[in-house]
């Protein structure tokens, strides 16, 4: 069973282009200065998913994000190795190997 889409709007990033309200007016409103506000709790109905995804993708400053249901503690930790991590650092001696030059 798939969970519904949930979005978050970062108002500190919004520059007031209004593209989101144009594509999904049921989920975004504009204040007196043209900055977006999220209507509701961010839960998106399946029927409105395409319009909200269009708003998310067309936002010029990427102020709209799709919330991931995974919790940080659900991600497995990286495997522990006894190898020295400094052996893989990019240094002047390994410029040719890593493909960067000055």
UniProtKB/TrEMBL annotation:
Keyword Iron-sulfur: yes
Phylogenetic lineage: Bacteria, Bacillati, Actinomycetota, Actinomycetes, Mycobacteriales
Gene Ontology terms, MF aspect: 3 iron, 4 sulfur cluster binding; metal ion binding
Record-given protein name: Ferredoxin
Keyword 4Fe-4S: no
Highest taxon listed in the record's lineage: Bacteria
Pfam families attached to this UniProt entry: Fer4_15
Location of region: Disordered: 71-102
Named cofactor requirement(s): [3Fe-4S] cluster
Keyword tags: 3Fe-4S, Electron transport, Iron, Iron-sulfur, Metal-binding, Transport
Gene3D superfamilies recorded: 3.30.70.20
């Amino acid at each position: 069973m798939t969970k519904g889409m949930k979005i978050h709007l970062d108002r500190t990033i919004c520059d007031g282009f209004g593209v989101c309200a144009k594509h999904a007016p049921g989920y975004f409103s504009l204040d007196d200065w043209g900055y977006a506000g999220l209507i509701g709790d961010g839960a998106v109905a399946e029927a409105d998913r395409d319009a909200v995804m269009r708003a998310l993708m067309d936002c010029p400053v990427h102020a709209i994000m799709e919330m991931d249901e995974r919790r940080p503690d659900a991600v497995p930790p990286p495997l522990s190795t006894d190898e020295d991590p400094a052996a893989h650092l990019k240094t002047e001696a390994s410029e040719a190997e890593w493909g960067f030059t000055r």
